[in-house]
Amino acid sequence: MKSTLKIKATIKQSIWFIPFIASLLSGCITGLDASYLSGQTATKKTEFMLSFDDGPMPDTTDRVLDILATLKATDGNPVKAGFFLLADAPDEFWQRRVYYAPYELWTDKGSIAKYPKVARRIKQAGHTIGNHTTHHSWFRWPWLDTEESVLSEITEWEAIAKPTLGPLNKRLFRPPYFILTKNVLETTRRLGYQIVMGESVGDATPGMTVDEIKEKTQSILAAWSKPYPCVLTFHDNRPATYEHLDEIVSNLQQQGFRLVHFDSERL
Ligand SMILES: [Zn+2]
After folding, report:
1. 137 and 245: one domain?
2. Least enclosed by CB within 10 Å: which of 122, 156, 185, 206?
3. Are residues 197 and 87 in the same domain?
């Protein structure tokens, strides 16, 4: 009786083996079988894309572009990124109080109107350009979260960007601070924009060190479970990014994460 139970238990424990035996007998071990056998090592590592917000800025955006030219995607070519640009971010403190979130009134941000050469360089390098509003609007301000204001933030951007960049093949929009209100959703949908969100790497957080950004990006990718590549969001006006982008990205590649070109159609 005891030995019968033992045999039953052994059969039960061995049931997982049956599909493997069956595949051997049928003469085909599929890719699925192979990964099943080798466990974690055969698991495809997460793909990630790079995106940069708040440019174009003289010097800092140029430095980011120089670094990108040295980073290779999985196909061996210099990686292409997504740049979500501002058409004309305010310089004056009182103007920033109208548009920016209250906690970043001292931050310099980009402008296609003021730095058209930098904006053109982004396009000529083959990167994708998207709309990040004209003034970096914090849509939590009640005077900005209206249909008229959202519409003008987006269409004024187009009016400023077009003479500098020519027509863009894609209408991509990233809301500043990732704030999606009903007005933002409805207006972008009506204008035919694809909204591209992303994962903040933390370079805009005061006091965040490069090592902390490395750790943060690593854990974002390790936890990524969506069926499309993870879009990391950097800022080309932050020193951690324009000075250490190569180090941050190489660290991820060394962990086995796969750098791919920015491609909104995969999102
Ligand atoms: Zn931004």
Report:
1. yes
2. 206
3. yes
CA distance 251 to 122: 24
Q: In this structure, how many other beta carbons lie within 10 angstroms of the beta carbon of residue 120?
A: 15
Residues 75 and 191 in one domain: yes
Which parts of 142-233 fold into alpha helices (H)? 147-165, 182-190, 210-223
Instruction: Look at residues 46, 47, 50, 29 and name the one whose alpha carbon lies nearest to residue 38.
Output: 29
pTM, full prediction? 0.84
Note whether 86 and 127 are same-domain residues.
yes
For residue 56, whether the previous peptide bond is cis, meaning omega lies within 30 degrees of 0, is yes
**Contact in structure between 30 and 23 (CB atoms under 8 Å):** yes
Which DSSP symbol is given to 127?
A: -
**205 and 183 share a domain?**
yes
How many whole angstroms separate alpha carbon 205 and alpha carbon 179?
A: 17
Distance 94 CA to ligand 1 centre (A): 19
Whole-number Å distance, alpha carbon 203 to ligand 1 midpoint, is: 12
User: Are residues 19 and 118 located together in one domain of the fold?
Assistant: no
Residue 65 is part of a domain; what is its CATH number? 3.20.20.370
Distance from Cα 71 to the centre of ligand 1, integer Å:
23
Dump pLDDT digits (tens) for 220-257.
Answer: 999 999 999 999 999 999 999 999 999 999 999 999 99
Do residues 211 and 246 both lie within one domain? Answer: yes
Q: If you write DSSP's letter for every residue of 175-186 in order, what string do you get?
A: -GGG---HHHHH
- Give the pLDDT score at 43: 56
Give the pLDDT of residue 34: 36
Cα 96 to ligand 1 centre (Å): 13
